[in-house]
Write the structure tokens for this entry.
Amino acid sequence: MLDQETTLITPELIDSGQSYSEYREMINQMLAEDKTTGTNHSESYLNYTKMNVQRMNRWDKTAKISTELDKVVTSISFPQVWLVITEAWCGDAAQSLPFIAKLAELNPLIKLKFVLRDENPDLMDAYLTEGARSIPILIGLNGDLSKELFVWGPRPEFLQNRLKAYKLDSQNITATEFADGTHLWYARDKNQSLSNELLPLIASTI
């Protein structure tokens, strides 16, 4: 698995990726033109994107990193590249990316880059979740991109299991109600599950 993915993650791909601030600015510019990322610029996808901007703005201000996770990230002693596959309309991405960006800011040895799923289908297909192109996906690599260090995504384990259960039996819950429940869970969880899942992954690299 490793060899296949790392051949897709090239220096050129990383150079073409965006920083978090560039990613956010791109989304704002596209919304100003009544567009979002990808090919679906429907009213519903525009509304998803607008809601996601609000979510990211809120987490930019309120996300807190635990002392333990802070210590682990700042202990990284060699260059790492953190590559995120995402799209602006993705609700799970909006809930997790601000926290990941705050983590990367803790250590100058971490280069965080964002690329879009639909513009990189081969890369996305190397990181499928149970056969689906689910996002966001965070891929940690060493500085020269020769080794995959860890992979996280597309959502905390609790939500992934909840989604699997819903697909098996919706229990007459509509898709809108299910999504509302997901975002309520994120608000209550306050990135704790994401933090707990990233901690051992990042710690394994130091």
Remarks:
- Residues 2-203 form a domain with the Glutaredoxin fold (CATH 3.40.30.10).
